[in-house]
């Protein structure tokens, strides 16, 4: 008989591309992972993975099994939650992908509020690039995504739940730290530390620069980093000045290592979106979480103003 836990182990190994990483994720031993995969391979009389060193790549048979395994696991979750709901208990497991630094600062509060109302629901958060988490959402690997940018896809529903704002962060001893106010042209003569193109912070900065007829090529970019916290730390170390979310900047400012500086005429606000896959039916716990992330929505839209 096919066991659901074997399919869960198979999916974890496929998604992590490694038996050892799947073992860490599932809190199992690597021999237990290998044994479970071997059981599946004997049951179907096929090879599901090709092993190359520490990596495990799906065979053609494994690729065929993966979407079916995900469907069975999702169906089992829905059955379990539906039965639990008959007794008035909303329980379940929610997988959330976060592609924005701001989301990491907002989520603990939102999850704490949600679990106070639904203590039987577990919420796991995965922090990864936007491309990865949105693809996982489309493949039904995860349930929801927090993103600072919309993409045009008919299966994805984007709902704004927070207005974030980028800010210029400078080292505590920087000349701009005294007045805490500059003009856009002042940026041309200063070494800038920027996020990667496509991030919410960079997009907001790009639009503000364009509104003042400043092309990105005119800036003196000394460093690009793919992580907002890394930008803040680089600023603290005096490597330049940089734009980060106010949520990220708050730590550096509170420690006295950096100062926020206002750029005259810059509107650096941008929306964070809660995203779901329209094709995926929501379980009771998922529907409760989807609604909780939007109510009270105005509270969160006000915070970032």
From TrEMBL:
Which residues, by range, are in coiled-coil regions?
none
- Keywords on this record? DNA-binding, Transcription, Transcription regulation
Q: Which Gene3D superfamilies match?
A: 3.40.190.290, Winged helix-like DNA-binding domain superfamily/Winged helix DNA-binding domain (1.10.10.10)
Under the heading InterPro entries, the entry gives: LysR_HTH_N, LysR_subst-bd, WH-like_DNA-bd_sf, WH_DNA-bd_sf
Spell out the molecular function terms from Gene Ontology.
DNA-binding transcription factor activity; transcription cis-regulatory region binding
Domain HTH lysR-type positions: 1-59
The entry assigns this protein to a family as follows: Belongs to the LysR transcriptional regulatory family.
Q: What is this protein called?
A: HTH lysR-type domain-containing protein
Q: Which organism is it from?
A: Candidatus Thermofonsia Clade 1 bacterium
């Amino acid at each position: 008989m096919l066991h659901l836990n074997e399919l869960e182990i198979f999916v974890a190994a496929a998604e992590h591309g490694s038996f050892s990483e799947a073992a860490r994720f599932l809190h199992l031993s690597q021999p237990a992972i290998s044994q479970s995969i071997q059981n599946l391979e004997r049951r179907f009389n096929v090879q599901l993975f090709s092993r190359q060193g520490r990596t495990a790549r799906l065979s053609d048979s494994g690729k065929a099994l993966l979407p079916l395994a995900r469907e069975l696991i999702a169906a089992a979750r829905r059955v379990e939650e539906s039965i639990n709901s008959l007794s008035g208990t909303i329980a379940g497991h929610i997988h959330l992908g976060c592609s924005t630094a701001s989301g990491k600062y907002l989520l603990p509060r939102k999850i704490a509020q949600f679990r106070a109302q639904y203590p039987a629901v577990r919420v796991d958060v995965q922090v990864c690039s936007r491309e990865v988490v949105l693809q996982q959402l489309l493949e039904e690997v995860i349930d929801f995504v927090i993103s600072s940018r919309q993409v045009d896809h008919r299966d994805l529903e984007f709902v704004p739940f927070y207005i974030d704002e980028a800010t210029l962060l400078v080292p505590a001893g920087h000349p701009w730290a005294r007045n805490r106010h500059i003009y856009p042209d002042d940026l041309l003569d200063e070494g800038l530390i920027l996020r990667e193109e496509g991030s919410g912070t960079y997009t907001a900065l790009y639009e503000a620069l364009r509104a003042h007829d400043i092309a990105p090529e005119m800036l003196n970019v000394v460093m690009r980093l793919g992580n907002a916290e890394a930008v803040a730390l680089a600023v603290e170390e005096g490597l330049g000045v940089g734009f980060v979310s106010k949520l990220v900047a708050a730590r550096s400012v509170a420690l006295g290592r950096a100062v926020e500086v206002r750029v005259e005429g810059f509107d650096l606000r941008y929306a964070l979106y809660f995203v779901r896959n329209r094709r995926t039916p929501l379980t009771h716990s998922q529907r409760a979480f989807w609604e909780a992330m939007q109510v009270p929505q105005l509270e969160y839209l006000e915070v970032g103003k």
